[in-house]
Amino acid sequence: MMAASASSSAQLAHTVGRAAAQAATTAWTGHDSWLLAVVGISIGLVVVLISWLKLHAFLALMIGAFSVSLLSGEGVGKVANSFTTGLGNITGKVGILIILGAVLGRLMADSGGIDQIVTTLTRAVGPKGLPWVVTLVACLVGLSMFFEVGFVLLVPLVLQIAKRADYPVLRVGIPAMAGLATVHALVPPHPGVLVAISAVHASIGLTLVYGLIVAVPCAIVVGPLFTAYAWPRVEAVIPESALAAFTTGGAPGGAAAAAEGAAAAREGAAPRRLPRFSVTIATVLLPIVLMMLKAGCDTFDWGHGTAYTLLEFLGTPVVSLLVAVLVALGTFGYAVGASRRQVQESLSRSFPPIAGVLVIVGAGGGYSQALADSGVNAAIGQAAGHLHIPLLLLAWLVAALMRTATGSGTVATVAAAGIIGPLAHHLGSTQAALLALALGSGAAFLGHVNDASFWMFKEYFGLSVGGTLRTWTVAHTLLSLTSLAGVLVLNAALG
User: Fold this and answer.
1) Predicted TM-score of the model (pTM)
2) Residue 270: its pLDDT value, please?
3) Annotated domain spans of the chain
4) Eight-class DSSP state of 222
5) In angstroms, how far apart are the furthest CA atoms of the chain?
């Protein structure tokens, strides 16, 4: 599934996994110990630069990446290259998704479509039920796509619920993140889980069943329950740039709508109508449906030929989001009475508010690449090879260490699978499926400053670095530990 967005991540992860597996057979050296210390030093440096010196996150991450390369013994000529390579990779993969998601969100906001969704949701469940509904929606959205894609699609909804319903943003922001992260870590057909399944020779169907069994309680714990604890204790103020990206500046029928109606009258055009709720939902779900159909074809071998090739193309995240944007030009634009000038203005207003998010996300990719190029991943694989603990715990530990070092859950899962795979021969189908889930569970551990999505969460929801560590990082750690407990309980029950 999601081959276009996953290809470069998968290639990097396979390379990391092979290197780590080879390193596991060699002797531990003082340089390996130093590499692990470099990780802690660089993370501490980034946090101090941002929190104490108030340096912009882009510069702090750039300095952190350079420090990793220099302290690990990389040649001076490779220091800048690691950062720029990582920045380019993550910007190419995630940046374009952020841009297309911002355009879709802007069109939906200017048409009043987001207001339709918010009004319907709040009327249906009431304020107390919103965290539960958002968690469920996020799980459904996340079944077929990368975390970043689902997050970009849900951000407009989360921000509008917070604004229109006068609702604390973290009460809906944390559940959205929790639902996406849970299915990303545990439920096929996400690419990391699929590679883990292949590496340990597990059944996709059985892993899917066990993954859903583990994912349900995890989503509840990390979503509504953790949210109830966290949101009163962490301050979050939605930045004006985020509001500008996804809000219209006034409720439907207010001053903004009146001004727009007057402008339309001067041009001889009819005032813009609100899109129907069903049309709004269909437009938002279009990329999700396309990606889910593609995922189903890839996972269960549903079809071949021309139709399958077309679906393979349309279900690629970048393409499916582009298709949704083109459809939204009609459903949120021309079909509800917007003029060509109004649609053009909506498109133009989509880009400036996301500039800050793009540069920080790109810097996070550069920092992660510097860690990978330093050899930290191989050192972790070598350390794991000398441990003597049960295989499920070893798989979780290796994946957790890889996640801590690389920042990418997908890369961590695949890299850890390269180490654990050779140890998984002759396992039964149940044990193999649980081992794949243990790898996914470990790869959810301790998301922090080297994770590009960490900075997306921080920027969109107006958190400090400390506040993001207390929400994003704690939630991912809780997800990892809770899912590990679920895997161990299943192992005991089925063993």
Assistant:
1) 0.67
2) 55
3) 3-494
4) I
5) 79
